[in-house]
Amino acid sequence: MHVWKVLELFLIQPLVWIGLIRCYLAARHRVHYERLHFRSAIDAHYLEVRNFFKDGLLFGVIATVVSLALGLVVSPIWVVIYELLAVLSLLLIPTRLTPVTVFGLSWLVYWVLNPSLVAQIGARLRTHGVISLGLNSGVIISGFLILGLGLAATAVLLRRRDTQLNSPQIRPDQRGKRIVRYRWQQLLVIPVGVLIPGDWLHATLPWWPVFQVGTQQFSVLLLPLLLGASVQVYKQQPQVAWRRLAKDYWLVAAVSVIFALAARWLALSPQWLIGLLGVLVVLLWGSLLRHRYHDQHQQFWFSDTDQGVRVIGVRPKTPAAKLNLSIGDVILECNRQPVHSEAQFYAAILTSPTYVHLKVRNVQQELIITETAIYSGAPHELGIVLFTDQED
Question: Which residues form the PDZ domain (predicted)?
């Protein structure tokens, strides 16, 4: 019963609901765009919102177990600063996600406000039973480990196929030719159980769990940790690019843990610790810039073609999913008829209403033959997303 009450208090925090609203709006925009440009949505079930709840809870449970096992302690004042900055980032930057930047900035603000302002606020909070921690009490080391947990969770998201939806977005190039951008944008706000000093929550809510460590009492707080990434590709297979980027997230997560261990062993000053947090933010931004540079210097484009019709999307749980097609493949023949437009493609499907036979040139320039049964009399339910025919 107490666990549910703790979770209820997590759910009333503004960051959770603003994150959910932001996630819902992004999913609704994607579905509307797909229906407008491709006649039907690739996935109309608002996958982003489903991941927000399902993966948010899963990663939250894992992160809480690890956090409480390590005894990670944070300052209530830093929690307020972090949540405020996270909310502002979601409201003021509608098309980007900057979780790591917000996390690092929150510690910088906390350090700048120390010791004068935090001391004044801390004195007032102590009258209400709230104990504020200084920067020398190991809270920044807890920050390193919390950041490592967040980066690791993001890396898992980037590698998991069931959290990815390769939604094509059509853009014109410099010559007016249509090209496709694939964007992965997933936002999570996960509940991470952390320890905060004092028994002020227990004094207000007698059922609230309290831990005794030596002479110090700690309460458990579910910190809403903002996670996610917003990345795009123009010239790479999305899954390949996301997996490559996931390795960088894992690497920065490992560096974060190493920094935490080194800080504990060497007893580094707060200035050094804040500087190391800045290094982690720079490392991750460097990884994102390298991802963008690598994409820009590829030769391949997901572009319209005069030789066949290019596959720019495959709807899940449709006959097309059984054809082993990949985005970027070019369909040269359908049911042994050459096709050069979307209209010709669907006309060729109607020549065999229950089965489809395709000749395809994949992105490696290899010719392959693939076939599958289809829904009788419903060629547009095959599940292959193509460039729509342009009006003359």
Answer: 298-364
Residue 96, number of CB atoms within 10 A of its CB: 12
- Which one has a higher pLDDT value, 314 or 102? 102
d(CA 330, CA 313): 12
Counted residue by residue, the chain has a size of 392
Q: What is the pLDDT of residue 4?
A: 60
Q: Is the dihedral of CA 121, 127, 133, 134 positive or negative?
A: positive
User: Does pLDDT of 1 surpass 50?
Assistant: no
CB-based contact 309:330 (threshold 8 Å)? yes
For the chain, state the CA radius of gyration: 25
pLDDT digits (tens, 9 = 90+) for 335-368: 999 999 889 998 888 888 778 889 999 888 889 9
Structure tokens at 197: 């000093």
Query: Counting beta carbons within 10 angstroms of the beta carbon of residue 84, is it exposed (0 to 12), middle (13 to 18) or buried (19 or more)?
Result: middle
DSSP H helices, 221-318, are: 238-266, 270-296
Rounded CA-CA distance 210/275 in Å is 33
Please provide the distance, in angstroms rounded to a whole number, between the alpha carbons at the two ends of the chain: 65
Provide the strand spans (E) within the chain. 167-172, 178-197, 210-213, 216-233, 309-314, 330-334, 337-338, 355-361, 367-373, 384-386
Helix (H) or strand (E) holding 82: helix 76-92
- Please tell me the pTM assigned to this model: 0.87
Q: Given pLDDT bands bounded at 50, 70 and 90, which one contains residue 175?
A: confident
List Cα–Cα distances, 371 to 333, 335, 356, 365, in angstroms. 12, 9, 5, 19
What mean pLDDT do residues 218-231 have? 88
Is the per-residue pLDDT at 135 higher than 70? no
pLDDT of 128 > 70? The answer is: no
Structural domains in the chain, sorted by start: 2-296 (no CATH), 309-386 (2.30.42.10)
Give per-residue pLDDT as tens, 364-382. Answer: 888 999 888 776 655 567 8
In sequence order, the β-bridge partners of residue 67 are none
